[in-house]
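[Meeting: bench + compute handoff]

Bench side (C.D.) handed over the final construct sequence. Compute side (W.E.) agreed to return the predicted structure before the next meeting so the bench team could plan truncations. Sequence as handed over:
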Amino acid sequence: MTSTTEPTEPLSVEQLSATTLLRFATAGSVDDGKSTLVGRLLHDSKSILTDQLEAVERVSAGRGQDTPDLALLTDGLRAEREQGITIDVAYRYFATARRRFILADTPGHVQYTRNMVTGASTADLAVVLVDARNGVIEQTRRHAAVAALLRVPHVVLAVNKMDLVAYEETVFAAIAEEFTAYASELGVPEITAIPISALAGDNVVEPSANMDWYGGPTVLEHLETVPVSHDLAHCHARLPVQYVIRPQTAEHPDYRGYAGQIAAGTFRVGESVTVLPSGRTSKVAGIDLLGTPVDVAWTPQSVTLLLEDDIDVSRGDLLVPSKDAPPTTQDVEATVCHVADEPLTVGHRVLLKHGTRTVKGIVKDIPSRLTLDDLSLHPHPGRLVANDIGRVKIRTAEPLPLDAYADSRRTGAFILIDPADGTTLTAGMVGESFAAPQPVTDEAVDAGAEGWDF
């Protein structure tokens, strides 16, 4: 194993800019080894500083441990260190020569489901850990359900602590088959199973000599090569207007631009666009990117669009191609995860924030609450408490242009805010809860007999 303290060549700005970005989240039950996996990933990929490692070694030695406790690299809160659990979402940023990463290490306790929702809401991939000794348990199914609800495109099943089951292939195969069948029923589009030992480093960064029956990628290799297949540049084009730029100077007396970050898709000069929710139309006269005119711009670039016609456009409006405009509605039906300690009840007055637009609303109904243990629905619960996931119907004071969350995770999402103090109450996803089930192929079912090679 290569030491983290050995000198390495840092990536240049040019190398970093040439690499793609992958956002991923980890999830798993308590003591499954999530933080240890993250620590091992950072350590073995040489993504931590020498003083960070020395600090971990000092704390570990003070506890009487012979080797560094790599979980301490992410468990930053004092309560986390004392209890040996993850409480808050810990974000880490690191890079290899092939890709840049934003990692969200999320808690495993049931009462911190809202934290996993926060960490996985923007993730391209979720790593779900399972203790090889325990297999797929209720919390594993909960995490798979949350990943499916949030439409995370790629899920990695990391079967951890293989060293404690003598690196037995049959143990791994049984767990992988059970999880794959369950996650596919939920509509998870891609599932990759990897046997690992985070403590020993098997199949995390380097291939394991103890599992020669496994011919697939290590965790890092998969993270570096998994395609970000949900290319937002080819989705419905959407630009939430953040700011109207009108210099009114001698140099730019008539300049009027609409600035914002492209949430999805591509905009081109000459394209017909519609302003929502007003419905006014115009054509793109120009696109400014970092002060330079361009003919085309795509997500996630921050740009300024100039229109041919002088029409009313303000912050909170949504610019979309006229041929691909979403419907506007004042009746929002969505799946939500309640994140506040105060319950959400029928009749609750809220602010609904969608993109750059915030409107008043009222909770008209809570048709059901989802039980993640068995995916059963509790009808008309009347309220949702912290960590609950359920369906809601909201009536807004103004029409909103909403995409289905299945079509766009950016413009199909919203949050509910307490108008009294600005507290975030609920995270919402417009449309149906789960995707269509993914069939379990014969190859996946028979993989245990043939050897696991993904």
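W.E. noted at the follow-up: Residues 340 and 425 are 5 Å apart (CA to CA). C.D. will use this when planning the next construct.
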